[in-house]
Structure to design on (174 residues):
């Protein structure tokens, strides 16, 4: 009986679900939403689990493996619904001014890679701030000014709700 008690301590908690998900594949992004379904309607006893592997197109096999892993630690009476996160395509455009003595082409390449990496590492259900790309650009050595910045052709944050994740689509740095 004591053995069952100890074994039960690691079951049916959000931490147990997250640990199970982490054991499926390195680098998975997840968001667990309790008592709401995928439409954000109230659903007592349901845990909706949004998954993304960073690509915006998580293979169905990964979703199946996550379902199996979470079911292994799921408590009685708890329902789960594992879903692919909904992608919010993110476009960034900006113009850099490079200080004398620095390579403009190298800065463009560095900033493009940094922006893509940053956008693709944004957690599920998290907004993406309009000012973030500007700060990333200024982190590149020799960038003296950043102008004409747009995020999805606008100048506002990208708002994400449960189950939505930003992923880079077009990054235009000149």
């Amino acid at each position: 009986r004591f053995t069952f008690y100890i074994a039960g301590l690691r079951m049916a908690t959000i931490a147990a679900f997250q640990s199970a998900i982490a054991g499926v594949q390195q680098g998975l992004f997840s968001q667990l939403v309790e008592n709401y379904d995928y439409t954000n309607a109230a659903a007592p006893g349901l845990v909706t689990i949004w998954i993304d592997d960073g690509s915006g197109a998580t293979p169905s096999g990964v979703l199946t493996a996550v379902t199996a892993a979470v079911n292994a630690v799921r408590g009685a009476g708890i329902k789960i619904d594992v879903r692919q996160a909904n992608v919010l395509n993110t476009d960034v455009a900006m113009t850099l001014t490079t200080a004398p003595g620095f390579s403009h082409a190298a800065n463009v390449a560095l900033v493009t890679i940094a922006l893509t990496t940053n956008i693709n590492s944004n957690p599920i259900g998290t907004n993406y701030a309009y000012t973030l790309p500007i700060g990333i650009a200024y982190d590149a050595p020799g960038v003296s000014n950043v102008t004409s910045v747009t995020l999805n052709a606008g100048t506002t944050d990208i708002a994400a709700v449960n189950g939505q994740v930003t992923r880079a689509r077009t990054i235009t740095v000149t």
In short: The two ends are 67 Å apart (CA to CA). The chain has a mean pLDDT of 93.
